[in-house]
Amino acid sequence: MKFFSYFMLLCMICNGFCTTTKYFTFEEDAPGTEIGNLSQDLKIDPEEDPETSFKFIQKTSSIIHMRKADGLLTVGEVLDREQLCQRSPQCLITFDVVAFSKEKFQLIHVEIEVRDINDHSPRFTRNETHLDVPEDSPLNSRFPLDVAVDLDAGDNYVQSYYISHTNNFIVEVSTREDGAKSAELVLIKALDRETEEFYTIEVTATDGGNPAKSGETTVYIRVLDSNDNSPTFEHNSLKVELSEDAPVGSRVLKVHAFDPDAGINGEVVYGFVEGSPTDVTRVFQIDLISGEVTLRDTVDYESKKSYELHIQASDLGSNSISSTCRAIVDILDVNDNAPEISIKPMTSTSDGVAFITEAAAEESFVALISTSDGDSGPNGYVRTTLQGHEHFKLTQAYSDTFMIVTTTTLDREAIPEYNLTVISEDLGTPPFKTIKHYTIRITDENDNAPTFSKASYDVSVMENNIPGSYMTTVVARDLDAGKNGKVFYSLIDSKAPDGSPMSTFVSVDPHSGSVYTLRSFNFETLREVEFAVKASDKGFPPLSSTTLIQIRVVDENDNFPYFTYPVLRNDSAEIPIPFNAQAGYLALRVTAKDEDSGVNSELSFHILEDDNQLFSVDKNTGEIFLKRRLASSCGDVLQITVSVVDGGREPLTSLASVRFVVTDTRAQEDQVVILLRSKDDETVEFDVWTLVIAGFGGCCVLLLGAISVITVSCALKRRRRSFGRDGLYGSTPLSKSNNSGSNVYNGANAFLRNESESMQPCLYEDKSLDFEEKLFLPCKPFEQTFLWQDEKYCLQTSGTSTTDQLSVKDSGKGDSDCNDSDSDSSGAALRRSLTTFQPTARGLFGDWKSGVIQTRHTLAPPGSAYTIGFSHTPLYNTTHHLNTHLNTHSSHLTARRWNEGPGNMQSRPMQTFSRTGTLPSYSAHQERRSRAGEPEQTLAQTYTQTRSRAGEPEHMQTYTRTRTADPEQTQTYTQTQTEVATSF
What we know:
38% strand; Protocadherin-8; disordered C terminus; 65 strands; Immunoglobulin-like; Cadherin-like_sf; four-stranded mixed sheet; 5 domains; transmembrane; mainly beta; signal; 5 helices
């Protein structure tokens, strides 16, 4: 079906006018005969507007052809006027043509008159007629003859009658009301039956054609011997009027004839003359006795406007002679016809429906309306109106023909269809009204882009999904119809965070808009991705819109937790524990990590195997405590199995075997702890300590006296110690850390020996950046410490950062991370992050102040803790101090180790670090002690401290302390200070 074969016609503005053009042609003209040229007659030059074309509004039959380019009208097939316009004096072929281009159009009403040619001869209904004429018929008696019929019209119709020669009769021709010619024989000479009983007369009917054509009939007359008198009508001619709405049986007229004869010769009977037309005998009937004419059938003014009746009267006598009377019946018009409406749309597919595009401009032509009424006078005058919607109106084209045009632009999405009503009403009394409903459907234009139901879609997908899994469906609606409203979806390819095209991650069903995965997502590598989907229609040109889809990958518990401390080797680790560890002793703090997130990464710790039932673990912090004091019966090696479990719905577990090796080292009470804490966590830490302080506040009040006694005892104890142990540094006692942060180490793995043990140098390095640094130094002197095994560890820390890694074990043979000694467990397991700090100046009374110092190197995690042990002799690794000796046989610095007695020294290598500030800038010069029975010895110690401020040169301060011991235990302290500005 071609809905839009003439689409462009509907988009033109009706700014033209309507013209009526008349042409004529003759019947029997050969096909192809030119009738007229519309473009020439209407002054339309196709060369000026080559896109101008002509079209029938409603296709006519094939009798008329029209050339589309210039409107040339030709005969399509042989015309037969008598077939086209039977009984019509004028034969017209009418139709409507539109001449249009892109800019304008013109409506043309064409009337073609088919003119008659004399192609038919007159013809009588009978070839012969028998007529009885009484011999005593009076002169001028008239005897009607059959009427000749000619199918031609006008001058080609019957014009005259002729009869063959006779002395008794002549023919007279008269014109009837309908214009037909009729003939009568008139007696001009008395008849004498005895002289001549029979007459034969040839009657000829001739038309007015050139050349003329004729038809003949023969009249046979027999002379009868008749009465003396014949019936005589009161009126030889009558004229009456009859309303077309008269019912059947209505009286039309009544005739009366008088016969002076007596008896049956005077009794008159009536009837129609033999040979009367069938339309007369069909519509009318006459009473044989009364002569009353009544209506046998209904009459219609629009079909026939008048009838001519020939009535004869005869007596009942022998040889009766009849007489005739002519009666004319005129039909009166009444308003019995309602107006007729004919609608011819420009584009339609069914009756009663017209189509117009929504892109049509104002004043666009839609359809042609023609009205007619078969009545005459005011009854035939028609008034036409259009109702239904203000978007359309009627414009008169010509006569009773109108055009439906638009009054504004149209929108199919707002109103897809209009139901209009055409009302035609005549001016009769009462008026007749005709109502015709008409539908105008708006055809679609692609003027709406698809619209998504959401501007963006948030979709969650579990990681480890199966490729091809359904995720979501995007929905877009297009208000257009047909292919303009058919929506197809496509993926706008973009780059994923890893640089891969999005088309390798997801796919979009072009018809349903369903989105599917093409690969399995991994939460740990890709947590969120965003892409766009486009919805396009099939219009021309196509319109489209986009929406964003944000995929959030939901974590699945697919990663096992793993231990980060202690470092495991073959899923096991060895941890030293003092032989005198008491109940509640913190033996180890294990830490673990899980690559998952949320509850899947929430870890808890458990002890699965503990044969001696010695240990308990805090499931949240991983701190492993002794439940009771160690006994010799427990053995030298205590083995437990620790598990870490994540919080997933189906939890995953990792196991570690921990071997606690009992050492001969005593549990040390004094420890050095460096606690790094982010400023962001300050409030939280403060709240924790506040709760602790509040809980133990009451106890502190009760123990105030005990604390005073302990303080005095500690002071006395310091005086009794040797010079190397006598208050080199002093501070408030170290509080036991209760921080439950993930990276706080409380020093359970650092062990201090007594004074008689060998002394080791202690190294440490800064790894924090913008954190506060809390420094606490012990009241007791520094002592050597070892870690894990043997005596090769001078320092043990608990950091977890992988930056600024530093090994604190030293074999003197290069990097300790390469397992170059038999005590190494693994290179990676012994890597630690160390922290350098700069203590503040000592007070005059031998107590050091805790300070807050801005650190200088890399960032440490919040809440990290370190445990540090020192030897009796503080060391440094800078090159400007005189008493640091370089071992010429290696690239390591050599520190002096002092034994009992003067001059008895041993050298021990230590690891070298190139970064400035690896050690705090103080050094030991000498230490002398007196034995029993020896002379009095003077013990002196000198240390150097270097300080610097931003933008200033470094300052080096040198402190010297001396103590003189006499037999009476008299002690003298001298302190000097030298400050020198240095620049390294």
